[in-house]
Structure formats: C-alpha cells, structure tokens
Amino acid sequence: MKFSVNDFCPCGSLKKYKKCCKLFHDKITFPKTALELMKSRFSAFAVSNSDYIIFTTHENNPDFTIEIKSWSKDILNFSNNTEFKKLEILEFIDDEIESFVTFKATLIQGKEDISFIEKSRFLKVEGIWKYVDGNFLN
C-alpha cells in the first residue's frame, strides 16, 4: 500500500503521520511511554519500516536476531502483504522500567482476517522503550 506523510497516522491518533509516529520513526524524538512505542511500532509495520521495528525490539525478544538482512526481509514481507486496518488500546499498565499494553490489531491478509489481541511487555533500556514479548489473548 502506498503511504503518504500527509495521510492520517496508522496508530489512530487522527494526526497526520508526519506530525505523529514519523517523528519516532526518524528518531527525531523517542516514545516517552510504552504506549507511544506500541502505537509507533504498529505504524512502522503499516508503513513498512523494518529498521524501526528492529531498533525497538529488545534483545530478549524471541524474534531478535543478529541476522538483520533476513529479519528485515521477513518484516517487510509481512508488512507489504498485510492491511493494517485499526489499532485499539484495551489496557495500559505504566511503570518506569516495565510496562504492559493490551491491544487489538485489526489486520487483513488477502481476504483473510488475521486480527488478534495481545498483551505486550516493554522494558526501558538506557532511556529507550523496547518491545520484549507478548501473549495472545482470546
């Protein structure tokens, strides 16, 4: 999907992408909370920004690998073949070092609905929030 910086941000903020998550994606600023990171990661998947996904993934994440080219290719394959319809935040448990965000991602691949609900865990490492892991919920 072609995406413009003047389109509404995929995170659901109702701001233009260039005034919202793009600031995080371009490392002009960093998310102040795990919730902001969660939303910016959803947007990064939606705009096919594998570099940001890799940068914001904690080294203890099961998908983390030093094989960056292969990992980036996998992310781009997923992003380019998925419609990121909607992000709904269901719960946010905020703390200084470890936080949790429960969300519903509405996603379509081809004609198949692959939407899911996940409770994600984030850790703050040297002042920057990172995605550690998540559990799918029914």
Features:
YchJ family protein (SEC-C domain), YchJ-like_M, alpha+beta, Nuclear Transport Factor 2, Chain: A, 138 residues, 4 helices, NTF2-like_dom_sf, SEC_C_motif, five-stranded antiparallel beta sheet
- Main sheet properties: 5 strands, antiparallel
Individual helix count: 4
The top-level CATH class is: Alpha Beta
Order of helices and strands: HHHHEEEEE
**Structural class designation:** alpha+beta
Total number of strands: 5
Distance between the termini: 29 Å
Short note summarizing the structure:
The protein contains four helices and five strands.
Describe the structure.
Helix content is about 25%, strand content about 35%. The protein is built from four helices and five strands. Strands 1, 2, 3, 4 and 5 form a five-stranded antiparallel sheet that branches. The protein has helices at about 20-25, 35-45, 50-55, 70-80; strands spanning about 85-95, 100-110, 110-115, 115-125, 130-135. The protein starts with 20 loop residues before the first helix and ends with a strand. The protein is globular, with a radius of gyration of 14 Å. The longest helix has 13 residues, at about 35-45. With about 140 residues, it is of the alpha+beta class. The protein has one domain (about 15-135): Nuclear Transport Factor 2, Chain: A (Roll).
